[in-house]
Design a protein that fits this description.
The protein is α+β, with helices and mostly antiparallel strands. The strands form four sheets. It has a five-stranded antiparallel sheet. β14 and β15 form a beta hairpin. The longest helix has 24 residues. The structure holds magnesium ion. The site of magnesium ion has 5 residues, from loops.
């Protein structure tokens, strides 16, 4: 496995890319409400990325047709924004966005409530966010990647949430998807994290079972039981001190 440790210069650019991702999420939080379409959200995201002279990383990636992924309720990831997908009170919507700045990628996702949501959806969102930060906390120089996966798994198990098995985090940098792959549960992986690695951690947790499948559009991943799913992701820089979240506002 080849894992590229980033230079100081590359990390600097990844902070810029991450800041743009964070600006998009700041705007998503502001404009998500009942009655807006996921296409409207996509347009708003595209505008911010363009204004900051970055490139929407997802657009055209393996043919993906939009700037963001917008996945509603039982959709897990890779939902395609559409005019006809109108958010309504009580929905949850996962927004995933990537921005490439001078060749370096920031990748971050967040699940937002649409108006008032049920108590079980609130628990799902809170727990998935907590799982993300439990994983990030373990990202230190010389730590085992499997301990990051295990920290996510433990938080999910505490609330008996389903853990999506087929998708996970990944190295990120000059490519959106670099090695290593990051499972959201322990696999006995012996991979050791090192100072200078940049990795996206992204738990996807379900109110129901673990199992998911892809719809006929070849993109949208949905839960088999139709129950809601949440997705939280940050791009993180491993250092010899505290992990640095790159997908945050500068
Ligand atoms: Mg990702």
């Amino acid at each position: 496995m080849t894992v590229h440790k980033k230079s100081r210069e590359e990390i600097k650019l990844m902070r810029e890319a991450g800041n743009i991702v964070a600006l998009v999420h700041q705007e998503m939080k502001r404009i998500i409400e009942p009655g807006v379409s996921t296409k409207y959200l996509d347009d708003a995201a595209a505008k911010i990325i363009k204004e900051h002279k970055a490139i929407p990383t997802f657009l055209g990636y393996n043919g993906f047709p939009a700037t963001i992924c917008a996945s509603v309720n039982g959709e897990v990831v890779h939902g395609i924004p559409r005019e006809t997908c109108i958010l309504k009170e009580g929905d949850i919507v996962s927004i995933d966005v990537g921005a490439t700045y001078h060749g370096l990628v920031g990748d971050g996702a967040w699940t937002y409530p649409v108006g008032n949501i049920s108590d079980e959806c609130k628990m799902l969102l809170e727990t998935t966010e907590r799982a993300l930060f439990a994983g990030i906390e373990k990202m230190k120089n010389n730590a085992l990647l499997d301990d990051v996966s295990g920290a996510v798994e433990d938080v999910a198990n505490e609330k008996k949430l389903g853990i999506v098995r087929q998708y996970g985090g990944h190295g990120v940098g000059r490519q959106m998807h670099e090695e290593p792959f990051v499972f959201n549960y322990r696999v006995g992986n012996k991979f050791v994290l090192k100072d200078g690695m940049t990795i996206a951690i992204e738990p996807m947790l379900n109110l129901g079972g673990d199992d998911v499948h892809t719809l006929e559009d070849d993109w949208t991943v949905v839960t088999n039981d139709g129950k809601p799913s949440a997705h939280f992701e940050h791009t993180v820089h491993v250092t010899d001190g505290e992990p640095e979240i790159l997908t945050k506002l500068l």
